Every structure is written in C-alpha cells, then in structure tokens.
Amino acid sequence: MEKALKKYWPFFVLPTFAAFVIGFIWPFLQGLYLSFCKFITIDRATFNGLKNYIFALTEPDFLHAFWFTALFTVVSTICINLAALAIALALTREIKGTNIFRSVFFMPNLIGGIVLGYIWQILFNCVLTLLGKPLLSLHAPYGFVGLVILMCWQQIGYMMIIYIAGLQSIPGDYLEAARIDGATERQILWKVKLPNLMPSITICTFLSLTNGFKLFDQNLALTGGDPAHKTEMLALNIYQTFYGRAGAQWKGYGQAKAVLFCILVLVISFCQLRATRSKEVQQ
Amino acid sequence: MKKTVARLLSLTVCAGMLTACGGGNSSAPASSGAADSGASASGASGAVYYLNFKPEADDAWQALAKAYTEETGVPVTVVTAASNTYEQQLMSEMAKSTPPTLFQVNGPVGLSNWKDYCYDLTGTDVMGELASESFALKDGDQILAIPYVNESYGIITNKTLLAKAGYAVEDIDSFDDLKKVAEDITTRKNELGFAAFSSAGMDGSSNWRYQTHLANMPIYFEYQDKGVGVSETIEGKYLDNYKAIFDLYINNSTCEPAALAGKTGDDSRNEFLAGEAVFYQNGSWEYSNLVGEGKPFTDDDLAMIPIYIGVGDEANQGLCDGTENYWCVNGAAKEEDIQATLDFMYWCVTSETGTKAMADDMGFVIPFKGAQESPNLFVRQDAAYSAAGKTPISWAFLTIPSQTWKDELASVLTAYAAGTGSWDDVKTQFVDGWASEYAALNG
Fold first, then answer.
1. Neighboring chain B residues of A42 at a CB cutoff of 8 Å
2. What's residue B413's pLDDT?
3. Interface pTM (ipTM) of the complex?
4. CATH classification of B152-322+382-442 is 3.40.190.10, yes or no?
C-alpha cells in the first residue's frame, strides 16, 4: 500500500491540484496583475502603474471601512466566542433536552446571510419604529449594533458545536483527578478545561475573526452601508467601488483594494493562529 | 514521504473548498431563452445575443425572439439581467468568448463607459428607421447608441378618489393647486379614509423616483435657464422648489416621514392599488402593474399629470418624456453576428410582428417610423399632452454624473425626511457632489 502510494501519489493529487491551479492560483495571479491596470472587461486591460494603490490607500471611505470592520471584528469575535463557550459549558452538563437545545442554537447557521439580513432589518426597524427612534439605515451606531447582534445570532450556534466537541474530548480522568485533589469548579474550568480547549479556541477565534473581516452578505442586506457609507465594511466597499462606479479607472481601484484586503486577512489570521497555537497543550 | 503526501492531500482538499466557495460568485442570469444557442449557432447567418435591461419586458422579448427564429432561422438568445445588476452582468458577459451582440446603455454617461465596445451604426438600415437622428447618441461623428423606447413619467392620479375628495384632474395645473388639493386631503384624511400621496419609499427599490426622476426637475429648469443640455456644474437654483415638492410628498403621505426609510417600491404601489392614496409618482412602464386582469383599475380610473414644482410656464407643462434605454451593437462581435443583430433590430422596429409586440406586449411607444399605437393609457396621454401644445420636460437626469451621486442624494434625502439630517446636506450633495463626481468621471 505504502509503496503504491509512493509511486502513484502525483497521479492522485493531479485532479485537485489542477483544479486548484485553474480555480485559484491562476485567477489570483491575474487579479494581482489587474490591480495595476485600468479595465472594463478583463480582456482589454491597460497598465496603470501604482495609481490604483495610491488611490485605495488615500480614499477616506476605504479607511473608514477598514476601522469600522476592525472594530466590528473585535467586538463580534469576543461576543460570539464568550457566548458560544458559555452555552457549550451549559449544554455539556447532564441536563435534560441538551440535544434539542443544541439543534435550536445551531439552526440560525443554516439560513443564508442575505435572508437573515433582510429578516433582521424588518425586525430592527419594527422595534425602532415602536420606540420612536431613527431606523437602521439612518443611524450608524444602530447599524453597528444590529450587525453585531445579527452575527452573534448566526454564528454562536456553530462555534458552540466546536466547543462542545472540544469539551467532550477532554478525558474524564483529568476531571476526576482534579475533583479528587479538591479543585473547585472554577479551578477545573480555568486550569483543566480551558487549556485542553485551546485547539477549539484557536479554530473558533480564527473562524470568527476571518468571518468578521470578510463579512459581506449581512452587511449588504442589513444596512447596505447606509447612512452615507458609515456602516460600510471592507468587502462591501470593494464591491461598491468595482460595480457601483462607471469608468475604467474604478475597476482598477476596486481590484487594488481587493488585493490589499486579501493581504490584510492573511496577515491577521497568521498572527492569530500563531498566538493561540502557542498556548495549546498536548493531551 | 508520508508527511508530504498528507500535506499535499490536505492542500488539495483546501483548494477544493476554496474553489467551491469561489464558484458562488458566478451570478446566474435572471432568465435565459434559447439556452446558449448563440454559442453553438452554426452557418454563416450569425446569431443574436441580446442582454436585456428591462425585467418587466422579459417574457415579451423571449416570445419575440422565438418568433424571429421561427421566421428566419436565426437563433436569438435573450438574457435579462436581474433588477439593478445590469452593469455587473454586462461586464462579465462582455469578457466571454461569446459576448452579447446587442446590449444597452442608459444614456450619455453610461455610453462613456462602453463606447470603445460599440459598433458605429451610421448608415445602417435600423438607423434609417429612427424617427429623428437627433435621438441617437454620438461620439464625435460616430452613432453609437439608438433609443428603442420612449417613456414618460409624472404623477399617476386615481381619478375616482380625487372625485371623492371633491376635485378633478382639471383643477390641478400648477404646484399651488397640487399643494392645495394635497393639503386639503390630508386635513380630511380620517374622514376620507385615504391620503394624498402613496409613501415616498426611500428603500433602494423605490428611491430612484426621488433621487433621479424628481431630481430631474431642478436640473432641467436650470439647464433651460442656461440654455445648455449638459453641465459639469450645477448651481442648485431651483433646489427650494425641489424641497417644496419633496416636502409635499412626505408630509401628505400614507405614513410618517420617519418611516419612509424602510418603505419599498412594492409598499408604495400596493398602497395605491388598495386605494389608500390619490397620487403616485411613477412612469408609463407602471401601467401593466395597475391596469389589467386581476388589477383594480381600468383606464377610466387613472390619469397621469405633470410634476409641477412651481417653476416655468406651468399651464403649458407636459409630462417628463425621454428614455434611458439605448441599444448598442457590440463592435467586437463576429462580423456575421453583427449583421444578424442589425437585421434583428431592423425587423423588430419595422415588421408587423415586431412593432406589434413592442407596442402591445411591452407597452412601448418606439421612436421609429413604423411605430404602432400603444394601448398604454399613459403613453396615449403623453401624446395628447403634446398634441395640446404642452411642452414635455426632457430627461435631464441622463446627464447625472454617476450612480454614486444618486445614491448619496437618496441617503441625504432619507435622513432629511426622517429628521436626522438637514436640507443643507441635500444642497451640498446636489451641488458639490455634482462637481466632484464630474471631476471623478473625467479624472
């Protein structure tokens, strides 16, 4: 078996590798090239030098979108992970009906972002009308809070499942040994459960960080960037630059922003992976 | 070795996931007719691939394309972009190996984006059929786009309700009249059981009625004063009139001004259909949504009146007349496809089947010599206004520098209506935004 694998592995890897090259590497390189161009359709691009990047880095809306996205990501990552962990801890105790609760909490994840965005928009606007406050698309802070609530509602269930899996894989003897040694529940949580949960925490923070940074559907459906681009996140800003504007130069600007965005997400996720990995323990 | 294999395998698995995600980006067309027959068309006769802008006319275009194929054997594919996604779809379709041979631009500003892709229509048969050469859009001495439909908009009025309130359409021929009637209806709103205006929804599905069509009025009158057809700067001389009409709309509506931010185009139409409002600003394209089978109105119930804003010779003001539907032929298409497309266009505007379909099924009045009379009430009314010597208001909004200008105007108008923004913001966007967008357009 081993021998055959050694001999034929390139053959087995080839189809997916080819798909990877065609579907990812080649378009990525092309995109990189286009970020230095002006174009309307990609087959007629003219070189534009570094102008696109200069524009992207100096546009106030793009910078605002960056800070808005960063703030949103931090807040939503903390909220989602704390809540998901709390629910996971609650649902790994021996209470009746845990399975029902787990399914209920997981369900929002099965609905698409656009649909959720519109549903929550109606909900929020109804509540705001009843309270006599300005609607979601008129007041940026409401838009921000709305996005955080929406993301929490959607993501907590998913992260909860990962945490539950993590908690269940902690060997029972660790907990038993701790109890025999006289550890309190709090000590067990901090000294036994959490260190053993580090792989799950790594995954969950990674997912919620990147999801937060790349958020698009929910942003488009819930606020659409209103009022006046104040709730526009990076992905939506790029989309608006690329499609919302007529003229060859704008496609280049959008492309340059997209490349910057890609690098940013890569850097942030690498840093985060490094930071949480170093805290993982061997079981 | 084992490790390398494992790594490569995991890499390829990831790649599979990534490409699967990437696949979601390719947007499916809203509908397609003779499924990709354009690609596989054989023979020297060429094929036509029309990327249609008007979702409401999709069915009629599909039927017309089929009829043409049956008559001539030339395959015609009609694809309609979903509402608000035309530019996106055009961009991606144009880069394909079988791009649309016939596509649309929305006017001079839209054309500037696509002019390098347009075929020069000078001297073609279809150009010869255009009622006046001045309708076409040119770049230098090249004719690049021709309009295929004329439309008009104004304030659609429910005559039955208006009579209940004690008025008739003839009573309204100035802004002051409109204001008097609307405010009278509002004071008696509870007793009458309906409001003056259907909600001026500022949701994306409806805000074009205010950031584009209503905004046309101050732009048009300023152009008239200056004697120009396009200008890279705007003074905002008639913005107070724009404010007056917008105030009238939002303060005499079915709902509170603060709730307008969330109101959609459907909300507004449904209110009008349900008889909750007398006035509804919209255009001739709305006819099929109001009259016909299963609809509450007949031609006798409705009328379209001009949008009066208290400027100019109001007694002789007509409806707002124009088009933002221009045909362009893709100059990069294969020669036989270009010829097939020109033949198809010619057939649409000259043949019995073509002109009838465009008039009856699509409800268009077409700016070609062979045009048939349309059953559309608003189109006939527009003709009647013109025949009575009233001056139509042209669509000066075609010179609005960008979609961004419109979107940002909508945003400040919404805030103004809700009371979270001021009219000064609207003025700033209108005047300064105009200049900066023109600068961006040229830069």
1. 95
2. 94
3. 0.74
4. yes
